[in-house]
Amino acid sequence: MRRWPFVAALAAVAAAFVAPQLWLLSLSLKSKAAVYEFPPRWIPSHPTAANYWFALTSTQVPWYLWNSVVVALVATATTMAIATPAAYVLSRERFRDRARLLAAMLVVQMLSPVVLLVPIYRLVERASLVDTRSGLVLVYAAMQVPFTTWVLKNFFDAVPRALFEAALVDGASRVRTLFSIALPVASPGLAAAAIFNLAAYWSEFSLALVLLDSQERFTMPLGLFSFQSAYETDWQLLAAASFIGLVPVMIAFVLLQRFFVAGLTAGAVKG
Amino acid sequence: MRVRFERVTKRFGSHVAADAIDLEIDAGECLVLVGPSGCGKTTVLRLLAGLESADAGRIRIGDRVVNDVPPAERDVAMVFQNYALYPHFSVFDNIAFPLRTRSVARVEIESRVIAAARRLGLDDLLERKPGQLSGGQQQRVALARALVRSPAVYLMDEPLSNLDAQLRRQMRTDLKSLQQELKTTMVYVTHDQAEAMTLGSRVAIMQRGRIVQTGPPLELYRNPSHRFVATFLGSPAMNIVAETPSIDLGVRPEDVELSRTPLGDGWREARVVVVEPMGNETIATVELDGMRVVARGGAEPIARAGDKVWMRFVRERVMYFDRVTGDRVKGATATTQNAVEDTEHN
After folding, report:
1. pLDDT band with cut points at 50, 70 and 90 for residue B277
2. Is the pTM of this model over 0.90?
């Protein structure tokens, strides 16, 4: 049939994403000398885990990792905690200026945080939160709440209306309906939004660069950046550190993936 | 508990879904709201549930005006057309939910859920999720969830419309015996005239946001006040033929007699178009003077398609309706010697 062009296109797209990571992996397993080998080899002739060992024991990579985990998790939790009830209300309730509020949230999303770097810095400074992880978490959450609210609202919109009406007649309060009905039924959407936030916070660079000064509070992207200057051209070490930084994202994805099961609402309503 | 609608109106934009509805439902009775889709019957039910708020008029449950009472405090239980089961809860948890929200003690929840499940034959399915049930089982879970609470009023929104014909027929009987046993007020919405006829102690027929006629099913069947009621109830539907330029004649298929031979005055010759043997009865469509009439006869067909037969209407069963308004016209019979004779002149 005509499937092979489709398969080829998919393979090309997949290769474009996977190839750099494989190259990263390859680099990280090489010795310093092998990095400059010509012609370059995809598969190292003498693979070594020494770079990983060094990155984890003799550099500040564990600190960076820890900071990133804390910042990404707390920022994601904060974002979801604010966006979920907001999205629920925007989806379920009708009130004055609801449409305008929704439009405003979308418009705000169009401003790049980079444009706002200076005012954001001023705000954080006034709150005496410069060079703290709390400051970074608050700014991150503020950045992602509007978008996350939009995404979650659409997931709540997709929950069959009859379920909410049944809960209403069954005597469930608004809060109970949110926790007992809406959240479980919309959980694939919540998982998607959470993963999206985690990934965004994990890789965020410019805000962290502006708001953090001390090396011991650096997140992974900042840490890798400082690596380049501190160890100059130790590419094999940078590659190993970068790869270490990828692992938590992969773990998070695998863990949350099970929430993406299709047809979670199967059997809720018929017809 | 007794339910009353007093001139209740509900609009959606410019569309009047319920137009000054006046309705009284006695305690313990099963009132069926029936009509074609979009007639406003579901709106009336949702107004009673509190899922819609009335623009005008008063709704009472018992002595209490409930217009501003939230659904949870109206003491009603509702079965939705598409069941609206909670997909992530087991059957047990689905049935238990209305009790849990009301902080009923755990032991009591357990016994009441099991009692409701047993009554509907769901004992073995309590651990399953709705997605693992057949349509009929899902439907019974939805019923059990309503039943478990012993509410003042049951509200049923086309609960059987998603079931296949045979199951629907059986559930109809089960529901009727359940209602007779519980003796709880029930408001039942359907577009199916057979459900209306069999389930309702009284039936309210709706069209375009208004109640056209209310009464016991057989009373409506035998004595409709309007052409719409006459044609809506009964299957096959009542035959409507032009009587005079301003009057329609209506006759039910069972009141059309067919014969192989002319039996005297009033019998007219007609041609058989279609014969549908049902086993217990035969539905025949005959044609005379370009108008088609459906007749219901005995188990054994008396003719085949294309045959000539003789036909007459049972005169005392014939009804007349105003062509324009559709209202029943009484006494029109007095001016008519013979129905078939007159239709022939048209």
Report:
1. very high
2. no
Query: What is the number of CB-based contacts under 8 A between chain A and chain B?
Result: 90
Please report how the helices A50-58 and A235-257 are oriented relative to each other, as an axis angle in degrees rounded to 10. Answer: 90
CA end-to-end span of chain A, whole Å?
A: 35
Q: How far apart are CA A27 and CA B211, in angstroms?
A: 80
Using CA atoms, how far residue B242 sits from A107, B221, B293, B336, B340, in Å, is 64, 21, 12, 13, 11
CA-based nearest residue in chain B for residue A176: B101
Q: Do A163 and B145 touch (CB under 8 A)?
A: no
Reduce the DSSP state of residue B105 to 3 states and report it. Answer: coil
For domain B236-345, the question of CATH label 2.40.50.140 is answered with yes
* CATH level 3 topology of B3-222: Rossmann fold (3.40.50)
Count other Cβ atoms within 10 Å, centred on residue A159: 23
| Rg, Å, chain B Cα set | 24
Name the strand (E) or helix (H) holding B268. Answer: strand B268-277
Question: Are the C-beta atoms of B220 and B203 separated by less than 8 Å?
Answer: yes
Please judge whether B133 and A265 are an interchain contact, meaning their C-beta atoms are less than 8 angstroms apart: no
Q: Which residues of A touch B49 (CB under 8 A)?
A: 165, 169
Which tokens hold the place of B144?
């059990």
Write out the two tokens for A92.
């379920």
Percent of chain A predicted with pLDDT > 90: 43
**Whether the Cβ atoms of residue B213 and residue B225 lie closer than 8 Å to each other:** yes
Test mutation, B42, B100, B101, B161, chain A, max A CBs within 10 A: B101
CA-wise closest residue to B23 among B44, B53, B49, B43? B44
Number of folded domains in chain A? 2
The helix (run of H) or strand (run of E) holding residue B8 is strand B3-12
Give the domain extent around A24: 1-48
CA angle A151, A153, A158 (to 5 degrees): 100
Are the CB atoms for B156 and B44 separated by under 8 Å?
no
Q: Is the pLDDT of residue A216 over 60?
A: yes
Provide, rounded to the nearest whole percent, the portion of chain B with pLDDT above 70: 95
Q: How many CA atoms lie within 13 A of A193 on its CB side?
A: 31
